[in-house]
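Incident log, structure service

09:12 report received: a user says their structure output differs between two submissions of the same chain.
09:20 pulled the input from the user's history:
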Amino acid sequence: MHYKKVKGILSSSNGMNLYRGCLHGCIYCDSRSDCYHMDHLFEDIEVKENALELPKVKS
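09:34 re-ran on a clean worker, output below:
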């Protein structure tokens, strides 16, 4: 698992997810697809470490 500081909760590569990757490693999982352009091993979870501290967006 590794942590990444982000500027906003919403990102083009990760949407609003707080993390990317998974430890289960199911072979049928769509999230393992190359179309998600992950630059790390799928089993190495990337966590938005400061996501809870970011300001809330008012609509």
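09:41 both user submissions now match this output. Likely a transient worker issue. Closing.
09:42 reviewer note: The chain has a mean pLDDT of 80. The CA atoms of residues 6 and 20 lie 13 Å apart.
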